[in-house]
Specification:
three-stranded antiparallel beta sheet
Length: about 750
């Protein structure tokens, strides 16, 4: 695609276009320079746009109703006739007050409950185990010369020869360093003296009133720890005949899966504690009757009675209201031209009479007329103007009631007896239950047992095991000297040494005022084992040269040394070896855990004694100061204000103008027809490299135009971006690679 575009640009310099408007065949770039490329492009017709407004909705009028203004008028109406009321002047009393003890001072025992904290722990409910899988053994047959090795008398062979690792290996698989022949030499224990401080008298506290009590204790401490001394027991040898393995024994393994059993156990969830029940002080109640109000007389008024009369009163005058009707519009449409008719050139097919072998040398351009464009707009015109209509509201009435005296007020006398009141007071007795002293006298202690929960978990009852079927090894008999008993050491125990010290310890703390007595320290020296008695292996030269070490310098080889019993260092045997022994592969089965919570006692329950103050109350009794009497009070007539609504001004309408609504449309007018631009210099094909195209795309993107992906291809998006850039910067349009455009983009 890119190459065809490049060729079209190159050919543009030599194209001679033939059109119906008789373009000359020899239309070539004037003053052309060799090595440069030129192009002549068609300039499209130029248009201008303008926006025009039209009336979308005609102006109209709306009517607003100003409602009638109502006013209120008030008038007084008799609702209750005047009368007389008898008012009682009650007897007056004077009060006598006194303070009386109603409850003696005492004590209240409050239980401070025990405090617990919750702890969370993880409990295993099923143990971890392993599942075994059998891997059967494999064999291989091999003939080899076995290096037996040997040691002189008085020494022992510290390991066996491993031909694979070319070294003597001990029973634990580690290599023997130095000579394979060893003898044991005892290394005695080493002691060292250490000095330490011990507490001769423990720290304590003294009190001003009661001094602390001490007792003297005697204890032993170690001055030198026990240790052992090693004595060497020399190795013993014997000559034996033994069978040499020619085929290793093997096993056929059968896996028996592990079994589990469920174990139920009790787990502590809340520690045992003590519950204290407070024992309160007891009281006894004493009662007595006291006169609180003397006998007297009360005057009771019998009020006047009334009867009710009902009548109707005008509350609101009749009136009229106005209702508006909105204006009505009708919709009409109109067709408006928004773009003029214009012409443009379109490229036709190749001229069949062209004499050139290249059909692009003869092209036909046709002038085509593009018709004008129209748009239909909608607008609203006023059909019926706004109006009003009248509605009548009838008058409103309200019902009122009034009261007239039916029977006047009177009075009657009632005897009021004296009033007495029973008062009680509480006397402190003693605690209902008690103990020897302290808080025990005020509380009963109840044991709160610990709480347990039953936890069931699975434990391994029988581990997975492997049933083995033995395949016996095959042996041949050889004779050699072997170590009957290896050299060893005997440990002689040396007992520890002790010394006696006396120290003072605290038996009972002092009370009341504290005074700290610092601890007293003494220094003592004892011997400790710096390094215990051990044995060490001494290298002994051997006449046997290990395979693979011939010709090397070996300080432990001695040609003159002789083997114990005159044995040989080598023996040749043929045997079958287990290439891979039967084995099992362990598959880990993880343990299963569960989270449990339990409550742990932080502080036990205690009691607190609170002093309760004595309670007093004020007793007041009343005596008659003046007897009850009556006085006559005039009750004036009662009137009620009645409010009614009257029309102050009638309802009317006001007229408001609705402005016209406008719409807009855009029209396009032709300024000039399409024509050919002048010849302009363009970038030649040999200079349009991949790097140059990428530079053009990056420059467009930097100036805010979207060239599409930066892919060294001048595609449709890149062309559109160049065309828009040319229009925005008043450059000649139509050719993407004009030098004028490249210079404006900053591409050199």
């Amino acid at each position: 695609m890119k190459k065809s575009y490049f060729s079209l640009l190159t050919k543009a310099a030599t194209l001679s276009l033939v059109s119906t408007v008789a373009l000359a065949q020899n239309d070539l770039p004037p003053n052309a320079v060799s090595g440069k490329c030129y192009a002549k492009c068609l300039k499209p017709a130029q248009f201008t746009t303008k926006t025009e407004q039209y009336v979308a909705k005609e102006a109209g009028k709306t009517l607003s109703v100003i409602p009638a203004v109502m006013g209120t008028e008030t008038q007084s109406m008799l609702v209750k006739e005047a009368s007389k009321r008898l008012e009682v002047i009650p007897a007056t009393y004077k009060a006598v007050s006194e303070q009386v003890l109603v409850k003696e001072a005492g004590k209240t025992v409050t239980v401070v409950p025990a405090v617990y904290k919750t702890e969370t722990e993880t409990v295993m409910v099923k143990e971890a185990s392993k599942r075994l899988e059998v891997v059967p053994a494999a064999y291989r047959t091999a003939t080899e010369q076995i290096f037996m090795g040997g040691c002189p008398a008085g020494s022992y062979l510290a390991g066996s020869w491993d031909s694979g690792r070319k070294a003597f290996l001990r029973a634990d698989g580690s290599e023997v360093t130095g000579s394979p022949c060893k003898k044991l030499d005892a290394v005695p224990a080493v002691l060292k003296a250490e000095t330490e401080q011990y507490v001769a008298k423990a720290a304590s506290k003294t009190y001003t009133v009661v001094p602390a009590v001490y007792k003297t204790e005697t204890e032993q401490y170690m001055t030198r720890p026990a240790y052992s001394r090693l004595e060497i027991i020399p190795a013993e040898y014997k000559t034996t005949s033994e069978q040499v393995l020619v085929k290793e024994a093997s096993k056929v393994l059968t896996v028996t899966a592990a079994t589990y059993k469920r174990v139920t156990e009790q787990r502590l969830v809340k520690e045992a504690s003590k519950n204290l029940q407070a024992l309160q002080f007891g009281y006894k109640t004493v009662s007595e009757n006291v006169l609180v109000k003397e006998a007297s007389k009360r005057l009771e008024v019998i009020p006047a009675t009334y009867k009710t009369v009902t009548e109707q009163v005008l509350a609101k005058d009749a009136s009229t209201t106005l209702v508006t009707t909105p204006p009505v519009y009708e919709t009409v449409t109109e067709r408006i031209k928004i773009r003029d008719e214009y012409t443009k050139y379109e490229r036709g097919k190749a001229d069949p009479g062209c004499l050139s072998a290249n059909p692009d040398d003869c092209r036909i351009l046709c002038l085509v007329t593009i018709p004008a464009e129209y748009k239909t707009i909608t607008k609203q015109t006023l059909k019926v103007p706004a109006g009003t209509r009248e509605q009548t509201t009838p008058a409103q009435y309200t019902t009122i009631t009034k009261q007239v005296v039916d029977r006047p007020a009177s009075v009657r006398e009632i005897d009021v007896p004296a009033e007495y009141r029973t008062f009680t007071k509480q006397m402190l007795v003693s605690p209902s239950e008690g103990g020897s002293g302290g808080n025990a006298a005020f509380a009963r202690e109840t044991e709160v047992t610990a709480q347990y929960e039953t936890v069931t978990r699975e434990v391994l009852d029988q581990a997975a095991r492997v049933s083995e079927r033995e395949i016996p090894a095959e042996y041949s008999t050889i004779t050699r000297t072997v170590l009957a008993r290896a050299a060893s050491t005997r440990e002689v125990a040396i007992p520890a040494e002790y010394a006696t010290v006396t120290k003072t310890v605290l038996v009972k703390d002092a009370e009341v005022r504290e005074q700290s007595i610092p601890a007293q320290y003494a220094t003592r020296t004892k011997q400790v084992v710096a390094s215990p008695a051990t044995s060490r292996e001494m290298d002994v030269p051997t006449p046997c040269v290990a395979p693979g070490t011939e010709g090397t310098s070996n300080p432990f080889y001695s040609r003159g040394a002789s083997l114990a019993g005159g044995g040989s260092c080598y023996k040749t045997v043929s045997k079958q070896l287990v290439a891979t022994p039967a084995a099992t592969r362990e598959v880990e089965i993880p343990a299963v855990y569960a989270t449990r919570t339990k409550q742990v006692l932080v502080s036990p329950a205690t009691t607190r004694v609170i002093e309760t103050p004595a309670q007093y109350e004020t007793r007041t009794r009343q005596v008659v100061a003046s007897a009850a009497s009556t006085r006559e009070v005039e009750i004036p007539a009662e009137y009620r204000t009645v409010t009614k609504t009257v029309v102050k001004s009638a309802a009317r309408t006001t007229e408001q103008t609705i402005p016209a609504e406008y719409g807009s449309y855009t029209t396009t007018a032709k300024q000039s027809d399409n024509s050919y631009a002048e010849w302009t210099e363009v970038l030649c094909d040999n200079k349009l490299t991949t790097e140059k195209i990428i530079q053009i795309q990056r420059a467009l993107k930097a100036k805010g135009y979207d060239p599409g992906p930066i892919d060294d291809v001048i595609g449709p998006r890149t062309k559109a971006a160049i065309l828009q850039f040319q229009k925005d910067n008043n450059l000649a349009v139509g050719n993407a690679l004009s030098l004028e455009t490249l210079k404006a983009l900053g591409v050199q």
